[in-house]
Amino acid sequence: MTPHNNAKPGDYAPAVLLPGDPLRAKWIAETFLDDARLVNSVRNCLGYTGTYKGTPVSVQATGMGQPSTAIYVHELITTYGARRLIRVGTCGGLNAKVKVREVILGIAASTDSTIVKDGFGAYGFAPAADFGLLRAAAEAAKAKGVVAHVGGLVSSDVFYHPDALAAYDRLIAHGVLGVEMEAATLYTLAARFGVEALAVCTMSDCLVTGDEIDADARQSSLSDMIGIALETALA
Ligand code: HPA
What we know:
Elements: E1 15-18, H1 22-32, E2 34-40, E3 47-52, E4 55-60, H2 66-78, E5 84-93, E6 103-111, H3 114-117, H4 131-144, E7 148-155, H5 164-167, H6 169-173, E8 178-180, H7 183-193, E9 196-206, H8 215-234
Parallel strand pairs: 1-4, 1-5, 5-9, 6-7, 7-8
Antiparallel strand pairs: 2-3, 3-4, 5-8, 6-9
Helix pairs in contact: 2-7, 4-8
């Protein structure tokens, strides 16, 4: 038990999917896992454990943004023994070559967040995905026929920029493909504790072209993304 989690030791599987939205956690558990049971309900930030193809897998909501994500990820690792953490969520597109519905596998995550930037002195830490998970996710996407781009994310603490494209222009010029709000903290904590992490993101809205996913496509795209993440959890 922690202040944010009323699960008991052993309630989580070593592999945990991490959506931001609690109701998406519920949907993932009820749709994709067998024998899913609720393990955390503190603040309605729902967590579940079930099985996927016979292997225990958990799903825990993180809330939005890096401070909230850091709390759940830290406790999943240090209190509950999580060893393989896979974020699933949407991201904004920063490059017109990534179309809505396509997936970005975050090989690295730049950030403006002080919870990542502080603590490394003169050396900016480079939050990076686990190579084995990245490779497994790329293979799973290929097997499912889902277009997946391996590239950089930026995990921003700001959703509503007065001018988002201007805010990210130097990152875009360095090839960063998508913006979301959680991966850099996930990767940093995974590195700190020697565990595996990956962010699998569906591109839902392109900041460059203005394209947005529609409601029907959103559901099937999210299912594709969860399928990739679950295969990666078993890899
Ligand atoms: N910014 C941050 N996070 C996001 C976005 C965005 O534009 N789209 C989806 N998640």
